[in-house]
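FAQ: What does the model actually see?

It sees only this:
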Amino acid sequence: MNREYDVIVVGGGHAGCEAALAAARMGCETLLFNISLDSIALMSCNPAIGGLAKSQLVKEVDALGGQMGRIADRTAVHFRLLNASKGPAVQSTRLQCDKQRYRLAMKSVLEKEKHLHLLQGLVETLVVEGGGIRGVVDQSGVFHRGQTVIITTGTFLSGLIHIGDVRYPAGRAGEIASLELAVALRALGFEMGRMKTGTPPRLRASTIDFSRLVRQDSDPDPEPFSFTTERLPEDRISSFFSATTAETHSLIRDNIRFSPLYTGVIKGIGARYCPSLEDKVMRFTDKESHPVVLEQEGLETEEIYAKGLGNSLPPDLQEKIVHSIPGLEQAKIMRLAYAIEYDYVQPTQLRRTLETKRAAGLYLAGQINGTSGYEEAAAQGFWAGVNAALAVQGRPPFLLDRSEAYMGVMIDDLVTRGVDEPYRMFTSRAEYRLILREDNASIRLMGKGRELGLITQEQHTKLKERVDQIEKGVRHLSSVRIFPVAEINDTLAELNSPPIRNPVSLFHLLRRKEIVYDDLSRFEGWEAIADRAVKRQIEIEAKYEGYIQRQSELVQKMRDLEGMKIPADFDYSVVPGLSNELKAKLLRVEPATVGQAERIPGMTQAALTAILIMIKKRELEGK
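And it is asked to produce this:
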């Protein structure tokens, strides 16, 4: 098979789908490998897209021309706005999807993409010559030539499943692990480690007593993920809540010796923020119960995802644990819970494009970089796919800094700080989260998507029209003034808002927490706006104007540091006062800018000053 591809993507999970679509849509002949074409875009764990800080990633990928948000909208069956009572900076959308419809919808999009080729197969060897990738070899011994290769193996890289004292190689339940590729990466000299995750049991809906559970309906009037979505599906599924009991906790404590987590069999590092049920019971002894959330996996299946019951205990104990939960006394397990260990590559070995430093043209994205979550994977896959395509086309790389996107925060965290546990996106990781909201992702990034050729002119024009409406609305409200007369203050009293004592603009009035845009209809000069997204942006502009201004000033200071480039051949050994530990970190990370160097763990102000002095000295010497 002598065909040469511009981009080869290994793995068809959430990272692989975004990588392949981005590269193909940019005109690159792209080959996507997956062990089974029937499991492309499979939601291996929970049936949801989005969530706290994760929805920001989904909306950013969408604004740039990615696919996850569009498919989530098409297949959603339950909608929730999380942190709805809090400020917009920490509000996040979560969509529960029909898992099979999601998989099939994404596969259909992939199959119809002009420059994208799908192939079922297992990649076992990477061919590297002269310091650069040349292609891959699959399990049948066929060489596939590629200018660039993106590895997105998820949990498949030396995957090992644990259920009690039984363990066996697998990428996930029912699918073979990728063993030889892990060997190939180690042979190239990559520093690798082991991580661990897991998934809860799936229960049969008809065996659950839902009358004993707390029901949560979908939000009645939700916002879509994608800027392109005009209509959301009307089918809705409710979620249900229960909780563990004293019996549940006794079962686990009395049988903890059967958990591979506690016998030392599992060596991989799990996530502190998403512990297994065994961990929750053993570590949080003061808690009398832990929540259990039941989510149906689709409209045409009885499978129920039992969030909160993830464990790696033997089957008989899993059954007893399920039956100890109110409402689940007669529940039948359709799929057992399990833990899975897998290999990852320490991401400080990557450049900011997600290209590896050891082999030019080789990119890594998703859980292979030590991350967790569908959304984190999709964002990395998009980032790697775009940069691989740009490299093939001889164009400058695609990079976003920490002030531009959650994606930029995540990539910078990974390549600068590395990971010591599965990395998950949090709003707290984004220091500029007030300006990196999910509601303004399109405004922030769609222009860049247009430059990449992944956003159509029609979509970009529609966005510009919306931005024009926002700016016009702000100007208009700023120009309309009201005065402290009895009629005005009586109206404010009806809105539970204090009286005014001086003339103010309607925009100034909108700064008040208790007043929303449509409340201003009570005042002369107000203009109706049909687009609720426009109204929302005007409200945020008013209520957070001062905070946004201060954060913008901090962004400028950060960009000053990011503008100070560190030469690629900079010799840290000649910088006085640097500890050996810090020198080793600097050599491993190879920061491109002073700003990136500042974020390396252990960096001090004195050390940063010393580096700056040496950079200036080099410039003066003309090097």
